[in-house]
Recover the amino acids of this structure.
């Protein structure tokens, strides 16, 4: 099956930028997603990128995709305490499968 | 409106009880999903309904029984659960199948005693 890996933890100071990374193995990816999950809540779709794009920017969020290296990243500019959460990357492929990453717990230090 | 609603928010049930979880979306999505999530882990897919028909059952025990009464509603009937079934149960929907972005509800926190 597909492996989608993330670092478990990331800690940043308020106001700094956060970069959350994701690597995957599926070469037939179509869309890649970033979800945010706050404690006790469901998953919130933050943004997604089509696999033929390199970058997508949406306010404080920048998604970078390196398809050759199968590497996806999410940059959060001016990180705030409200950004503390678990972030999951996910991808779909041409085989109509949906895979979640292992999740990165982001802690923002005031 | 990208809202998926779920009820109840919390549920405590004994191993002999029968209960149901409910999920609703009004986005016109044609695919709906049930996931199980343990703490700090990614969601695990349980069932997929596509155009109101069960299209994927990820080898889920029969004590979990899904139902899709119409294109907006999805239920999960629970019977004779085990303590290890305690988890957050998430419902999601997408415009069509698994190749599209999914929108999640807030989840039902289930505790089996």
């Amino acid at each position: 099956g597909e492996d989608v890996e993330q670092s478990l933890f990331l800690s940043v100071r308020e106001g700094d930028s956060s970069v959350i990374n994701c690597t995957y193995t599926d070469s037939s990816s179509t869309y890649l997603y970033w979800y945010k999950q706050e404690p006790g809540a469901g998953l919130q779709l933050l943004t997604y990128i089509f696999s033929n794009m390199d970058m997508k920017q949406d306010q404080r969020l920048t998604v970078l995709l390196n398809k050759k290296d199968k590497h996806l990243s999410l940059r959060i500019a001016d990180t705030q305490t409200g950004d503390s959460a678990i972030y999951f990357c996910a991808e779909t492929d041409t085989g109509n499968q949906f895979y979640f990453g292992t999740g990165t717990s982001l802690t923002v230090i005031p | 409106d990208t809202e998926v609603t779920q009820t109840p928010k919390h549920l405590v049930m004994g191993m002999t009880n029968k209960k149901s979880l409910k999920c609703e979306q009004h986005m016109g999505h044609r695919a709906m999903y049930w996931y199980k999530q343990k703490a700090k882990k990614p969601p695990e897919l349980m069932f997929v309904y596509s155009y109101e028909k069960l299209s994927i059952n990820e080898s889920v025990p029969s004590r979990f029984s899904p139902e899709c009464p119409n294109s907006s509603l999805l239920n999960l009937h629970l019977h004779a659960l085990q303590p290890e079934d305690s988890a957050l149960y998430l419902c999601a929907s997408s415009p069509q199948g698994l190749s599209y972005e999914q929108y999640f509800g807030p989840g039902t926190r289930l505790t089996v005693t």
